[in-house]
Amino acid sequence: MKLSRRKFMKIAGVSAAGLTAAVTGVAPLTGIAAEEVKGPAYQAKGLTAKRWGMAMFVNRLQDPALIKQIAESCHKPHNVPNIPGDQEIKWIWADSYAKSFPDSLAETAKDHNFEDLMSKRFLLLCNHCENPACTKVCPTGATFKREDGIVVMDPHRCMGCRYCMVGCPYGARSFNFHNPSDFLEDVNQRYPRRMRGVVEKCNFCTERLAEGKLPYCVEASDGAIVFGDLGDRDSEISKLLRENYSLLRKPSLGTGPNVYYII
Amino acid sequence: MLDRLLKGSPLFYIWLVAIGGLIAIGGVAYIVQLIFGLSVTGLSRDVSWGLYIAQFNFFGGVAASVAVVLIPAFLHNYKPFHKLVTLAIFMGIAAASMAGLFILVDLGQPQRMLNVMLHPSPNSMMFWDNVAIFGYMGLFMFVGWVLLEHERAGMEPPCWMKPVIILAVACTLFFQIVEGLILQGLPGRHYWLSAIVTPRFIASAFSAGPSILLLLCFLLKRLIGFDIGEAATRTMSKIITYAMALNVFFYLMEVFTAFYSGTPGHMHPIAFLFTGHEGQIYWINFWMWGAAALALFSLALLLLPSTRNNMRLLPWILMMLVGSAWIDKSLGMMIGGMTPNVFETITKYTPSLAEILICLGVLGIGITTLTIFWKIVLDVKKQAGEY
């Protein structure tokens, strides 16, 4: 019998959910309940969406202390090591306009660029693209897009060929050149560490969404980052994006990024 | 036929031991990489592919170039190439095994290599490349062995060999096309996002691969007196000339597209490769100018019949050609694709000592494979009275 880990988790989750429901008597095991529940039991109260997306109020994300706090709020619980040098690992970080939106700059306009915008910092992370270049090139299916649009990594299947890093036009992915555990001060035992030789990146906090919580960065941003369902026209984020002018990173490439920058 | 390896001249064994030393050094470097991970390389978050994949590009091309011998020999029944067939096939096998090994040493988790087969992902060109490498090795081991057995028995190849050879030719083209497509379809890499990349790969392969084969044949002539004959040499050098002319032409097309359109993304990698960035010169600049000079000079000498047919000059021309093709297809192709990085800034990449030693080790394995197979092939040829 062929049973992948993911499938096993699904079946186990559905069974556990069914059992819990039957025992507590909240909902009898009718089959309908089992159908509604996707994934492990705790996902019963998880957040779901057609297409998860993010919008950032750039002007409210300029304080270096806040940026640091947001990055740490993500990196610490996700056991992202702090490695100095260019073999670093980062899931979310801040960079200049020029590096974030390089194709929006013209050599001839370099003396006339809007200084306010040029001096701004932009929080960069995985764009959880609609047509991700990274999942397309992965030779093992170790990185894939979920039904809710989140692009995730299976670090146990990744063989470390780094083709996804070459494919990603946003530089969102990091490779564990070193053993990450050597660079972790305190380990969060509730989230797995990675091993050396695999690629990792932002996962839109799938583990938190499953528990009904918003991503760490959203929580730490004090309302400056909005997270929601882009597939729902009536969601807060959809309304917000209709009312505000926003930027996307390299939209001409056709990857369909789902992280918006409201300026 | 393997027993022939036991009856070699002292020089043969000294050579094997010397190359064994090279492999041992590469092996030690690889063990160091296994212990400390890819942190021992010069690679970084922004430059995630380097010398290993660069060598994979080049030697994959050498493997694919066997088609240049097979097509005339079997599909056009061009007699002077018959002497070359088995030599070319086993050179291809040695090159393909190197290409495979260069991928292997590049992996962060090499023990998971077979995940490519366990979880086949047809959307990934890397998956198809794996299929191509294994298909190539299997097919050519079979073809090479059958042809060699018939050569030993003094028989013509069996008639069913022709469709197998056609399949093998298709396999070589598939190998080289897929190798180009690995790079060609990535939206964020300006230097690679060009329809001419794969044609360039093929032109480069079909000029550099046969050049290496010819150079090795010149060596054989000096060492053991095996001569492929003037007709074969002349035809081969003509094919090399055409392929090299296309290779240079394709590159110039790339340069025109970039600089006539003036599109920054298109221009930056080429400008970086030749002139560095903001007045700063990088080591690759010297190599690229060297490659350009060697390419144009060798092509000019190949185009002139008087120099092309000069058997004393030809080896030098071919060496220049191989040097330029190697720089362009390995270092140039890889560094040009990764610099500027996706943030349009420069992240410097210099291969580390470990990377270079591991590459030399893989090269050693390729040379050993070639030596062993060619020893058998040449013994068979000697017995058949070919030299």
How would you explain this protein's 3D organization?
The complex is a heterodimer of chains A (263) and B (387). By secondary structure, chain A is α+β, with helices and mostly antiparallel strands. Chain A has one domain: 2-Layer Sandwich (Alpha-Beta Plaits), CATH 3.30.70. Helix content of chain A is 27%, strand content 13%. In chain A, the strands form 4 sheets. Chain A has a 4-stranded mixed sheet. Chain A is globular and about 50 Å long. Chain A starts with a helix and ends with a strand. With 387 residues, chain B is an all-alpha fold. Chain B has a single domain, classed as Up-down Bundle (Formate dehydrogenase/DMSO reductase fold). Chain B contains 14 helices and no strands. In chain B, helix 8 runs antiparallel to helix 9 and helix 10 packs across helix 11. Chain B is globular and about 65 Å long. The model of chain B has no long low-confidence stretch (mean pLDDT 96). Chains A and B meet through helix 4, helix 6, helix 7 and strand 6 of A and helix 5 and helix 6 of B.
